[in-house]
Amino acid sequence: MKQKICVIGCGWLGLPLAKSMIKKDFFVKGSTTSFEKISILNSHEIKGFLVQLSSEGITGDIEDCLSDCETLVLNIPPGLRKNPEANYVKQMQHILPYVEASSIKNVLFVSSTSVYDDHELCPVISETSQTSKTSNVAQQIVAVEELFQNNVNFKTTVLRFSGLFGVDRHPAKFLSGRQNIKDPEAPINLIHLNDCVAIIEKIIEENAWNDTFNASSTDHPTKQKYYTMVCKAQNLPLPIFDNTLKSKGKIIDSTKLARVLDYSFEIKLQ
């Protein structure tokens, strides 16, 4: 019998994930906030549902989207950088009763390594490292992680991704041509879309639930070295860095993920 997966948030990461799981013979339901995208999901054999989450509540077919599924991949970015006043915790609280009332047994919550602060010493960060006590973004994300991990109605694994990039999305394009960029000596923490998809599938296939994983490429060149190299390779205007202040950063350690899941990262940064 096919394992039934629900992917809430079929965007830049969620859609390629759902398409990949269909190829691996999973039965996949997926949500989108765009009516036009329903036909795209259905064309890839993903059963599409219109679902909109906000701090006020949920609209759409959330119950039907979750029904008969065993595993939920919850992939809703907080969007707090664009809207610092947003209440991500309240938004995620609205979905909990629906998950509790459904057939969902396992939840994979897509989180972020932005829960950890940068430091001048650029420490190596593991899953046991302290999360930020000052960042609103970090505190809201951690609160949502705990909201799901502390729920006894299902098992939850938290997957903290570093900066996401892929063929059509690279932070170098955003930095290209900019001046006075801070933290030139800070280590880079990025992860490719292909690795994101493969790691999520690996967690589901291995039943690696009730855990927390950091996920970042094992390469950590400096910001100045890496983005200069990428811009040169793509014939983009070079970024200009500010070397007058000491850089702050961190190195995200994915050793636990590699060990527990027996996983080797596909895409290298160097």
What does it look like?
The protein has helices at 14-23, 35-43, 62-66, 88-93, 96-100, 136-149, 171-175, 193-206, 223-233, 255-261; strands at 4-8, 27-32, 47-54, 57-60, 71-74, 106-112, 124-125, 155-161, 163-165, 190-192, 212-215, 251-252. The chain is of the alpha/beta class. Strands 4-3-2-1-5-6-8-11 form an eight-stranded mixed β-sheet, with helices on both faces. It is globular and about 55 Å long. The relative contact order is 0.14.
Q: What percent of the residues sit in helical stretches (DSSP H or I)?
A: 25-40%
Structural class per helix/strand content? Answer: alpha/beta
* Main sheet makeup: 8 strands, mixed
Strand content: 15-25%
H-E string: EHEHEEHEHHEEHEEHEHEHEH
- Characterize the overall form: globular
* Strand elements, count: 12
- The averaged pLDDT comes out at 95
Rg estimate, integer Å? 19 Å
Tell me the number of helical segments per DSSP (H or I, 4 or more residues long). Answer: 10
* Sequence of strands across the biggest β-sheet: 4-3-2-1-5-6-8-11
Please state the oligomeric state of the protein chains shown: single chain
Q: Distance between termini?
A: 42 Å
Uncertain runs: none
Secondary-structure blueprint of this entry?
Layout: E1 4-8, H1 14-23, E2 27-32, H2 35-43, E3 47-54, E4 57-60, H3 62-66, E5 71-74, H4 88-93, H5 96-100, E6 106-112, E7 124-125, H6 136-149, E8 155-161, E9 163-165, H7 171-175, E10 190-192, H8 193-206, E11 212-215, H9 223-233, E12 251-252, H10 255-261
Parallel strand pairs: 1-2, 1-5, 2-3, 5-6, 6-8, 7-12, 8-11, 9-10
Antiparallel strand pairs: 3-4
Helix pairs in contact: 1-8
